[in-house]
Amino acid sequence: MRSVDQRPLADSGEDPRVTGLRTAVSRLRRELAAIPAEFPDRATAEDELAALAAMTTTGTLETPRLRASLLRVTAALGSVSALAPGLRDVRGAVDLFGVPPGV
Asked: DSSP string of 50-100?
């Protein structure tokens, strides 16, 4: 028996790739915030993750822009082993949007 607070969520009609990307980006942002150490490209990573998060809420998801942001985040965080699983999840979510034409 379910309580009133455990009602199933209604189908939002949102593309599951967008939901997955939003979830992966949110998780990586939280993991990055939990690391107290400063490193040279932290601000770049935070800015690009914020841009990715914004893209998932505005609906402006252009594959070349997603890939460019992913590249910047990877360059900024690639050496932080604690963030590797979260970074891998973001990459997987971006990969679901396919390869842009001409690549």
From this structure: HHHHHHHHH----HHHHHHHHHHHHHHHTT-GGGHHHHHHHHHHHHTT-PP
